[in-house]
Amino acid sequence: MNRLVRPARLVVLAALAACLVLPLAPQQASACDVSYDYKPQLNLGKPNMGRSKTCSTGTSSVGVVLVAIAAFGALALAGTVVLRRATSLLPTPPGEDQALTDYLQATSLTPHPGPH
Amino acid sequence: MTGPEAGELLRADSPARDRALLFARIAIALYLLELLLNLTRPHIAPDEPTLSIFHRLPGSSGSFGRLLSMPKAVFWTVVAGIVLGAALQVYARITRPEGRRDAVLVWATVAVLLGPFSLLALTVVSSYLGDALLCVPGTVFVLAVLHLGQRFGRVPLTLLLAAFGWGALIVFGLGRAFSGLALGTLGGYLLDRPKTGGSPTDALNALSGQVHDQYRAIDLLLVHLFAVNALAVAAGVLVLLLLLRHRVVDAMTGMVLGAAVGLGYTFVESVLFIRLFGSLGFINGVTGGFEYWIRQSIGLLGGPVLFGALLGGSLALALTGPRERRVPTVLFGLAISIGGSAGTEALAGWLSKVTHDHMSGGGAFDTLIVSPLLWLLPQLPFAAVAVLLLVAAARARGATARTAIAARVVPGGPITPVEAHFLSDPSLRLWTLAATWKRHGPAAALALYRLQSAQYDLASSDPQEGEPLRAKVMRLKASGPNRTAVPS
Question: Where do the structural domains in chain A lie, given as residue ranges?
Answer without folding.
Answer: 87-116
